[in-house]
Design goal:
By secondary structure, the protein is mainly beta.
Length: about 1600
Amino acid sequence: MIKLTRGALTMLLAQYRGILKNAWIKNFAVVAVLATTVTAANADPVEVETWQDAVAPGAPALDGVNGVLDIQKSGEIKGGQQITITGGTGHKIGASDQGEDILIVSKNENSYANLSINGTDSEAKLTIDNNKTQNSVKTTGIWELNKVQVGVEGEKTATLEVNTTPSWITKNEEFVEDVPDFTEVDFLEIGAKGVVTNSGELDVDDKLTIADGGSLTNTGYIWAGRDSDTPGSLGTEIEVNGTLTSEGTIFFNSKQLTVGERGSVNVKGTLGLDDLDSVNVNTLTTGEDAKITLTDKTDVLANTLVLDAANTNVKSVTAANLTLGSTEYDNSGLGADATVTTKLEAYAKDATYQIKNGETITLDAGDKNIAIVIDNESKKGSVESNLDVAGTLKVQAGDWTAKNITVGDDTNAGTLTVGGKSLTADGLTVTNGTATVESNAALALKTLQVDPKATTNPKGIFENKGTIKVAENAVISTSNFDNSKGTLDVGGDLTVNGKTDAESVLYNAGTISANSLTLKGMDYDEKKSVEENDPALFQVADGKFNIKGAVTTKSDLQILADATVNANSIEGHTIDIYGKVGSESNHVASITATDEFTVRGGSVFADSISANSVELDYSYGRNSILNVGNVSTKNFNQKAGKVTVTDGSFKVTDKATVKDLTLAGKTEANVGSLDASNGSVVIGENASLTVKDSLTNNADKTGITVNGTLATTSDVLGLTKTDTDDAFSVTNTFADSSLNGVLKITNASEVIGDKITADNLALLKNAISDGDEKANFKGKLELTGVQADIGEGATTDDAKKNSYTQDAVIGFESLVGDVSLSDATVDVKDGQTEVSGYYGNLIADKDTTSIKIQDATLKGTGSEATKGNYISAVDSNDDNKVVVAGAQLGKSSSLTLAGKGNIGSITADGDGKGTLAVTGDANVVATDGAAADIGTAAANIAQVKVTVTGSLNAKDIFTKALETSGDVIADKIQTAKAEITAGIVKVKEAVLAGETAIKGGASLVAEKVDALTHNILVGQEGEAGSTGYFFAKKLASAGKLVVDPEFNQGAAIAGVNAFNGDNKLSSDIVVGKNAIFAYDESLTEDQLKDLTSKYKLSDDDTGYGSALVVNSAIDLQGTNKGIYVGKDASSSPAPKANTLTLGQNGAVGIGGSALENAKVNEAGTQVAAINVGMVKYADSSKILLDCSVQKGERYQIFNDDANITSGGSTEGLQVKSLSNYYTGTIGTDGKTSAIETNDLAFNQLTTPVKSYMEEALAQGGNDAGIKFLRKAVADSLDGGREIETVARLGAFGGLYNAAFNVNKSSTEVIAARTSMGNHGVQQVASNNDAVGGAVWLSPIYKNVKADSLESNGKESGSDVKLTGIALGADVTTSNNLRLGAMFNLGSGDTDGNKLGKLAENDFDYFGLGAYAGYSFGNFAIASDVTYSQVDNDLSATSSLGYGKFNSSVDTNVFSLGITAKYTFDTNFATITPHAGIRYTSLDADSLDVKSANGVIAKTSYDKANVVSFPVGVTFTKDIKVNAWKLQPTFDVTLTANTGDTKAEYDTYFVGADSKVKLESEFTDSVTYGLTAGFEAQHESGVALGLGVNYEGSSNTNSYGVSGNVRYSF
């Protein structure tokens, strides 16, 4: 017996009761006998010091007056004993600090001990405590009471205070398993007046109940139902109808937790429900720091459930009101990495939980990331079940994920509200009820459907005020979707169902984006089925619509005044535009209206419009705007607004009525009739308009302004000629100011004749100018078929022979086109008289170096002596020869060089004077043939223009403005402004003293560029077709180099070899969307252009939209310059000094010597690829390694003292190879982590090829095969497909597949002849033919599609097409023996598919065969032997710069077969079963895979031996018609193939130490065939036949056609 004195030690805590029972308690033979003395009633209360004294007969009442319980001695309690405390607050068990007391309650079948604390007499309180200062492990505890009642009876409060704190807690140690420092009871009942507080450890084994009004407050540990090892020991119920509050730890291991209607559980500590089968609560609330753990066996049934915990794991929750996370506790919500598992009911995966009518589930996570995992077996973030919301689902706060959500059903209307941060789900269908996305909230889906079946009276309603992102497709209805200032972004196709019997309106006050938009309303073509007053109309109202693809409808379409639509195309019946369609920077590619297209006060920017009629009107107080590239319509009616057609076509087959029409750029317009009587049309400088039928000008003749070309006929102009005085009359005239371009009269010769004099030309101009004799006719006339009648103007000097004097051509200055002056040489004497006109060329006197030009166009044609020069002078040494001369331009002068020719130096008579336009091929040269200058440094030409048809070669060009869309080659260009819109400008030096724009696909290539402080713009942000190309060996300086075009066109590229003599950055560089800038000391022009195939830029947020390529180390430190890379560059500030900024989807490619020298080595001598002060990167940016990268290596990308900061990313700056195969991150030291491999990136590789590739790369080397593998792994974006193609070029090219089918074509025609096969175009048995000989010819076609054949676990295949012809002869003896031979030849091609889709094969073949057949009675047997040779030319296109992989190889096929058959004659047909065996041997030569970089792989093939067993039946019928015997045939054959149905081969990549063993299936094990044929045989011996067949298997389908012509003799 161990005696424990009062307070000797604290109570002992038992962590695992089963262990304590079995290992310690059962061997604990202690009996505690405690005695006490009861004093008289009027004396001090007696201290009852033992349990036995308290229950002994005559013991004092424990009411605090007569007796006080104060047990401090150890002992063992036996028997059915109960202590009842009815009052007093000083009762204690183990509260002393003097000893090591413990009280043990013995349990057997007949013993139990109970404790009751009730406020019957007065308030009552019992404290159970232990010694918290003792160092001994043995401290006070009480174990094990049967039942404890607190406050069950009486009107006063009864309190039980448990403070038994385990020593492992007080001593801050690990818990001790064998120390019973706790208070343990089987049943704890807390009544309406009961209060239990626990700051130590309280163990309740079987049942815990809290009555309404009672409370349990825990700041320590409570264990309930913890003994799972003892049978029957688990409690059945934890019932809370009062209040349970815990800031400590509670572990409920019981079967059920029930919280009654007035009960509540409030937890701010840890709540453990490890083995609960169910939790049935009215209110369960957890606080900010709570931690709840449940096993996957736990169901939660609650009226109101608030789970606000850092780690919550619930198997299933059924609740009328469910809040997962709340804002009640300082808006903290769930923990940052919390996972809430809410299976809601015990459904299997992919099952559906229904939120019942009346239920509300609220998801509130504050600002944390939370995943709803609807299945406890799933990992965090996955969703395994669906939600049917017939009640209410609310997303209050936080980021949540779910699976498929359906709102409402046929009878119940559900409600979904996304008011928190975000909800992500697989799909959302709103069938009945309302879904709402509040402002500042986001909904992300794969699919969306809003009452998709409803067109009228919808039940499902969707209101969006926030952001909805749908990854795939969405279906909504006009009558139930309201995008109220929200954003709907659909990655796939958006379908909007409108009304099919009335007008439909799609309201959108926000923004809708989609891949395509289909508006399904009333089909116009079906309109006749409804009343006429119900329009087939679909209206798009308000907001913005951004559609990548097409907007289509079969209804009439109206885009209302407040709507903005951006799309690739728009299609409808009639289309009315009140709002905005497209923009200046983002045109709609095409608009198609099957009837009318009308702009009613709206604005339209489009590349093309096609309609039956086009009309512009005035509406809503606004004029219409139409800016378009191409218009094609029957009628065009512009009542108001402005129409601009730029660089396109304008075609109106009938009538065009204009109000304000501008034909800009290079537009070509064609109209039937033009009416400008109430408006105007302006033909731009490079535009043309052809009027076919009629033309009406306005009253003051200014309605048509010609700055370009107006082409029409004399009939349209009303041009006539008066025979008597050669005068002209014109009905449709023009004001002088309106004709600044060219008026072309296409049939002028019919009225004028074939020649016109200068005087008559003046009369004609006056007539066109409304008869104004003083007309200031600025424009030109092109008179088709009419030549200038110069008369006797030719000079007779030898060098000037056949030229015309300047006086003789006066009056013809305005005549252009195909006239005699366009090929004439004009003698300008000393060149001092300014020249105007359209001529072939000019010639001047001796020693004339230049000619003054006013307004001249020269073609470079003329007299024999001057031909090839624009301007010549008589050679001072030889009167019969000429030398090249130059031109001088004045202030307003203009020289146009057309055709092809040479000209001397072109100068200006002052700085900034004159314009030079080059539309032909012009060379500016000196007299010795060397290049000459245009302008001088002191006297710049005002403008030099080179059109798209022109080219200009000069030495130095000095101009104020260079505008070119052609080609310019010079030593030096110095310009104050340059606009290069097409073509190539190639110079040694470019001094750009103003802004330079390179766009429209143009190129600027220079050895040196000095832009001083000015900007160079490569590509034009906001303009279609705005890409550009810039390459400089040296970029000395520039204000800013900006590379930033639009997407949906070629990328803009810029590159330099050096900056100002070294690698230090000399200008700010901005690399925007769809742009590449490269720095590489050895870069060439071709290599720069090839970067677009290596760096795949895209607008996809998962890829990269811009790239900085660093192939040589670059230095930003101390340069005060910076680089910005990101597709958001246009909206970002200028680069920061000494900083590399990686913006949205920006990438930096590191390759070449920059990467090689950056490889970290033990000596630490690596060189940073980019030396920089600061690196700032967005989450979507990345580093791309474009070179030989090795697994496990590290690379110094940035200097180790660079300041590397993110935009909030926790994953660091990502590093990967271009192929995505190698991955890593950048550390704060500027180095990559050890490079790892990403197997998913090369998911196309088969296992053996992948293993072989890794071994070969680890081996290293620079042989061709290793270099190819290295490049493929670094750069390939096809998942390794190109590597597989090289390794299996023969297999993927159908080497054996083609050969096997070539051999089949031979055996099939033989089988047909011997009547033994399944291709019976000659199904006539040998014993039916006349004895004698026969010759036959069979054309053959076969198409075999094999698409799922196996290549080492991956699917591949090849499609084989072959055509050929077979020629044979045989003889049949009288004893039914037939002997024959055949020869066939043909060709075909093979296309690989699936894994092998890159491979191709063109093949030729020939074959030889012999056959024999013998029949006796109804039985027949046939055999054949064949040989075929196939000559294959294999190829595959490389995306890695290897050109085409190719190889030529022969395949040989030997085959031997024998077949037996037996014939049954029936009344309806002849039936012939047949069976056979065939042996086929295929043998291919070894092949070398060649490329542009040499042989990279070699393959050798094993011989394949196939044994086939065909079994089938043939049905034939002989029909006699006069001299003809007709025979239809049908055959069914099943063939089993055994042996080598897979080709086995070894591939060796050149330089590798080993080969890889591979196999590829070329035929299936079982095939089945169907054949139908027909033959007609004449008594003369002539026979004709045709057959078709199909052969199929699990992976192949084959179709064949063969014919037959035979003559028997």
